[in-house]
Each structure stands twice: as C-alpha cells, then as structure tokens.
Amino acid sequence: MTTQSEVNRTEQQEDLLKSLIAFTKDHRATYWSGTLSEFLERVMTADPQGAARTSHQYMWDMIRWMGGEDEKGNFRCRLFDQELFGVDESIDRVVDYFKAAAAGSEVGRRLLLLLGPPSGGKSTLVILLKRGLEEYSHTEAGAIYGIQGCPVHESPLHLVPHSLRSRFRDTYGVDIKGEVCPHCRTRLENDYEGDFLRMPVERVFISEAGRVGIGTYAPHDPTTADLADLVGSVDLSKVAEYGDEGDPRAWSWSGAVYAASRGMLEMIEILKVKREFLYLLLTLTQEKNVKVSRFPLIYLDETILAHTNLAEFRKFLQESENEALLDRMVIIQVPYTLNYKDEARIYKKLISSAAAAFREVHLDPHVLHAAAVFAILTRLHDGEDKELEMGKKVRLYANEEVDGYAHAETARMRQRMPDEGLSGISPRFVINSLSNAIIQSNAKSITTMDALLALKDSIENDARIDPKRKRKWIDYLVLARKDFYNRWVKEDVHKALFVSFEQEAQDLLDKYLDEVEATLDNRHIKDPITNEERKPDERFLRAVEEKIHISDSGKQSFRQEVVRKAMGAYKRGEKFTLDSHAQLHNAVQQYLFEQRRDVLRLVSSTTRPDEEVRQKISVVEKRLVEEYGYDSHSAREALNYVTTLMAQE
C-alpha cells in the first residue's frame, strides 16, 4: 500500500522534472559562428542595441530580465529573493548603480565597493550576480558575441575602422567604443591580410569556471603578490615559437582582468592588495584600459565589483594618500539585518544547506526567532531605557506594532544611528552554537531554551570576546527569553488550550451576551436553577473586557457594539459565535485561559491527573504538534515551561 509520504515524494519529483524541462526551454542557447560580415548582416541587423551593449548595460539587462514588481509596484530583482534577507536597501542601491551606469552616467566610471561586517551577505550578493550573468548568457535575450579566439572575448565591433564608425552610427543607431586588442590585431594582419570582414565571430557564453566574462581575484601574501595575476606576463614557452617577447601571441593572457572582459571582475578583500593594484583597477574602471609592458593600451570593458570588511576600510581611511582613490569608488554598505524575522530566514537557509544530520534535528518553532532576536540586540546601540527600549527597537525594526510608536519611527532610528548593524553577532556564530548543541547532546529535538543555553555557552567560552561584552550579551539572552520567547510560547499554549475548551468558550460568550443585554436593558437576570433574580454580574463583564484593555469609560460603547452585531446575526438567521467578533473572541480566549491555569499546573504535578484532565492535556500537545510546529518532546517541554512561568506570576 502506498503511503502519503511516498505520494508526496513522487509529486515533488514530478514537479522538479517539470521545472527542469521548463528551465531548459527558457535557457536553450543557440550557438552561432561566422565571419564579421555575416555577423553584421544577420545579428547586428536584428538587434543593434543588444549587439553593442557595454558590460554595465549587459548587467542591467540581466537584472531587469531577472526582475519583476512587488506587491507595491516597485521593481524587485528575484535573483536575490531566496538567498539574501534583510538587506533590501543595499540591494536597491546596487541595482540603482547598474541602472545609472547603463544609462552612461559618471557612476559607470567608478569602482563599486561593497562594505560591511563578515557574513553580512557581500560575497553572496556578488556570487548571485555572477550566476545571473551565466544564466542570462544562455538565453536569446542575453546573447553576446565576441571575436573567435580572442583572449579577452572582445566585441566584434572593435574591428570596424574609426573612419567608418560615424557611418556605422548613422546606419545602426549605436556607438562603437573600444579598440582591437593586440592579439587580434596581429591575427588580423598575419592571418587575414587586414580584411577585418573575414575575422571569425562566435556567440560567447559567460562562465566563471571557463574564465569567460567572469574573473575573480583573491589577495594573498603582499610580499609575493604580482601584477601578473591581474594582467598576465610573458609566456616563455611561446617566445621560441614567435621569436619576440613583444609578440602578443607570446603573452600569457591568463590575468583576471582578461577573464572578466565583457562581464564582471570580483575583487575579494580589495583593500588588502598593493596600492599599484588599486591604481591599475581604478584606471581600468575609469578609462577602460590597462597598460602592460611592450603593448599599447589594451581596451577592456568590464564591471569591477569589490568587497571588503570594516576593519580594512578603517585602516584604509587613516592614510591620507588614499583620498584620491576613494573619490573613484561608489561605496555601498551591506550591514547585518536588523529585522529578526529576516535574520531567522538566514538561519533557515544555512540549515537547509547543512549536513543531513543537522537538517534532520527538529527545532521548535521559536528556536530560530529567539536566536535572531539575540543577534539583533547585539547589533543595536544601547538606548536610554536599556532593556525596555532595546526590546521595543527590535520589534520596531521587525515592523511590529509597538504602543506609543508609529512606523515612521523606524526610519528615524536609522537616521539617528546609521552604524547599527555594522557590528555584533554574525549568523555563522549562531549556527555554530546550534551545531554544538546538537553534537554535544546527540538530541533529535532542540527547544528554544536549549538554543539559548547553547548561545550562552558559546559566548562564555569564546576567548575573542572581552568580559564586559560577554556580560552584556548574556543579558541580551535573558531579554530575548523574557520579552520575546515567553510571550510566544504562552500564546501557542494559550491557543492550543483554548481549542480544547471550545464549548466552554461558547458558553462563556453566551453568558457575556446575556449579562450585557441585561445591563443595557437595566433589568435583572433569573437564575435558571433557583429562579431567583439577581443584578447583572458587572465584575464578570469587566474581567472579560479588561483582557482587551476596554476602559471603564469605553465599556458602554463596546457593549452596545457587541449587542448590535449579535442582533444583526440573529436577523440573518445566524448564531453569534466567537468568530463573529474578533475583539471579543480574544477577550474570552484570554479569560478562559486564566480560568484554566489549573489544567496546565497538573501537567508538571506529581499527582496523577484524572482521565478527563489527561485527555485535555493530550489534545493540547497534539494541537501543538499538528498546528504550531512542535514535536512531541518540544510540545511537552513548552507545556512544562509555561506552567513554570504561571507559577512565578
């Protein structure tokens, strides 16, 4: 017999296969090759703008191809949706950079530098852009062409002589920028006798692994770093073949700037490189050429995207001679997110890519959010109100409602403290702590308290953290537990317990309605058992209403509104239920929860509960598992924890 899990797995496999087929259809690339004459006749005529794109224009077209509109009608690039969370502002600035550069503004003559703390998303953002370029180049919209055999994959349009470029612009409506590289110039003269129309052209597919359109440079020991890593050097094995070190065919075109031509060059930890490297890169960005010995200027069209951390940047700022270099950079900060919900999504992503043993461990529904709250607290600056103010700031940054504060306060906080998010706990620290908790306990279920204790252990045993900061961060763990986890877990148990007493809740609602109607009509209520008349139970009414903060002065209007809704339901032939009035639903739920604390206390009691109570407890646990993301272990732990909290109140 086929189980439901097997059916689900089969459906997932079928959906994946359909997605793979759809992807190949959308990205089915047609290879093309021919002479420059054929290129001009077939390709250039069909799409002049696409064939003449610069690297910045190509990047911008890729971003737009990957883009769409969000629910507010704003442009959003889906390239980043599943990998980067909480850094929308930084992503928007990167997108704006490419939009402006593609339009031909001076921004395109500046090096783009991403600045931020470790594990903040800088590298991921660059990697996603690289993957986007590779994917886009395999689509018809992203078709890009280069001179066949050219070491820098340059545009075939560079072969058009300068004397004919004005007529070319008049014919096709595009400008030609750039010069033929020394290697292709030599081939043109030696192999094709100067007939540039016979030069071979082919469609190019961007590939980081194939060193086509994407180059990457990572710094190493400054004493041994050589510019050859960027611009190449003489290939001694070919000197004998061509007889001259100045022959471009005897040059090793293995430098990263050549691999990145027509696409993007990533410079990792750029401020760790020698100054001469920086000047070469900035000249390449501004003038689009590099100068190497024995050759004239080599034209290279590429986007340079660099990233570095705050420590290196601050050292760079201290040297006055670097001011000129800073003027040629567009610096975009990529801080840690300050929204704990986005931070939790980062953890979830990291866990999904972890080893199977880690993924198979059950985490209760608040583990990641509680850890995220703690991480956000370490990234904020202390307010005047200490704990209270910090807790409110965390909620405001998560776009939650906070009494006494409008949503606009979030923007004002960022303006007052622009450095928030540039320091504090990194996502890797949290994931490492969770990993240690799993490894040390061999547990298959981790609760929020387990996670907070694991973070505490990591802080106390980390020699890099000074004692004062350790104490502060442990206080933040306490704040995350008291102000956030306690509220969340009580709400879960509250809701699960409430459903167990649905009939009692409806009876309670009916009683409230009877008491309200008697109060408004100024009449007595007859006891159904003794037939004695009594006044409406004002104490009961206020006990319910105070659960949702109905003031004494506002009780009359609230009660009149409830009666109007009840009469409306009666006229429509409907029963007035808990779902008929959201506020009253919440009030009755909380009132009943308070009245049924004894049931929760029996969970951890040494005495054996009777069968009715045991059954109700079982229903609560089952609902926590089925509807709120717990497993049996964490559900029981949550019930015990809430029972302890209530005993302390």
UniProtKB/TrEMBL annotation:
<keyword id="KW-0808">Transferase</keyword>
<dbReference type="Pfam" id="PF08298">
    <property type="entry name" value="AAA_PrkA"/>
</dbReference>
<dbReference type="GO" id="GO:0016301">
    <property type="term" value="F:kinase activity"/>
</dbReference>
<dbReference type="InterPro" id="IPR013153">
    <property type="entry name" value="Prk_AAA"/>
</dbReference>
<protein>
    <submittedName>
        <fullName>Serine protein kinase</fullName>
    </submittedName>
</protein>
<dbReference type="Pfam" id="PF06798">
    <property type="entry name" value="PrkA"/>
</dbReference>
<dbReference type="InterPro" id="IPR010650">
    <property type="entry name" value="PrkA_C"/>
</dbReference>
<feature type="domain" description="PrkA AAA">
    <location>
        <begin position="34"/>
        <end position="387"/>
    </location>
</feature>
<keyword id="KW-0418">Kinase</keyword>
<dbReference type="InterPro" id="IPR027417">
    <property type="entry name" value="P-loop_NTPase"/>
</dbReference>
